């Protein structure tokens, strides 16, 4: 069985999808999806040889090599813009890395209807990239597993590229527009923890010999948003 985290990611992949899972490691996600949906097809991308070999082994074990293609390469260089992919999954990495993978392969995303991202930290930078690149956040989840809280972001392409009047604000980029509307138990737990952490960071910055005033102002604004949402 798959982790709650990856099962939640999988739940956002539409039936019959042709998806790329970048940074697939053991390829557990594509194997799970293709075992439960015999019309789905996938590409598992890996930059490192160890995980690349593990991915091939898992795919062979489940006899899925006819529907899952395992490819070695950096980020989106393993996919082509005209092979018919409709979903892109990037899970289990930092948000900054996810953002740079998306930005580095922008030309591959012309027809990518849905991007599902699960940043371990810094989800804000992923949401910002999505907002600035014709994707709108259609759904989000926040799940807890083994003491960790994970955010999952589902973004769909704005096909006509028209500007949207409900583009997320900076506050929504931080908390997630959907997560902020729902304010679940996990959401409160995460932001209580982040609030206390940021408070300590600000205190340390204020005590430092060289004060970074701009950064302190930005952090204090975020801290006040956290206080608002925690009320
Ligand atoms: N996606 C899986 C999950 O969520 O459980 C695996 C997460 S694992 C922590 C991150 C994987 O991404 C590693 O196997 C690593 O080799 C791979 N990776 C890191 N940077 C990458 C890149 N630029 N392109 C492709 N794979 C990458």
From TrEMBL:
Matches recorded under InterPro entries: SAM-dependent_MTases_sf (IPR029063), TrmK (IPR006901)
Q: This chain belongs to which protein, by name?
A: tRNA (Adenine-N(1))-methyltransferase
Origin organism of this chain? Answer: Oceanobacillus halophilus
Task: Identify the keywords attached in UniProt to this record, alphabetized.
Answer: Coiled coil, Methyltransferase, Transferase
**Where are the annotated coiled coils located?**
188-222
Q: State the Pfam families in the record.
A: TrmK
- Which spans are transmembrane here? none
A molecular function (GO) held by this record is: tRNA (adenine(22)-N1)-methyltransferase activity
Going by the entry's taxonomy, the superkingdom of the source organism is recorded as Bacteria
GO BP annotations, alphabetical order: methylation
């Amino acid at each position: 069985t798959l982790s709650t985290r990856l099962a939640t990611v999988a739940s956002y992949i539409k039936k019959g999808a042709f998806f790329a899972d970048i940074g697939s490691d053991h390829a557990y996600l594509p194997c799970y999806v293709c075992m439960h949906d015999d019309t789905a097809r996938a590409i598992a991308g890996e930059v490192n040889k160890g995980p690349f070999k593990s991915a091939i082994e898992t795919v062979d074990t489940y006899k899925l090599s006819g529907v899952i293609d395992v490819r070695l390469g950096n980020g989106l260089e393993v996919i082509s813009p005209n092979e018919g992919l409709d979903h892109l999954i990037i899970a289990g990495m930092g948000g900054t890395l996810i953002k740079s993978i998306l930005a580095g392969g922008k030309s591959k995303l012309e027809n990518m209807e849905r991007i599902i991202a699960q940043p371990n930290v810094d989800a804000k930078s992923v949401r910002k990239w999505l907002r600035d690149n014709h994707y709108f956040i259609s759904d989000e989840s926040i799940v807890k597993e083994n003491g960790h809280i994970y955010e999952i972001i589902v973004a769909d392409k704005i096909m006509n590229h028209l500007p949207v009047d409900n583009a997320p604000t900076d506050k929504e980029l931080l908390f997630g527009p959907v997560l902020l509307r729902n304010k679940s138990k996990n959401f409160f737990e995460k932001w209580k923890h982040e609030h206390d952490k940021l408070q300590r960071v600000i205190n340390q910055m204020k005590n430092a010999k060289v004060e970074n005033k701009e950064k302190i102002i930005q952090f204090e604004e975020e801290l006040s948003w956290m206080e608002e949402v925690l009320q």
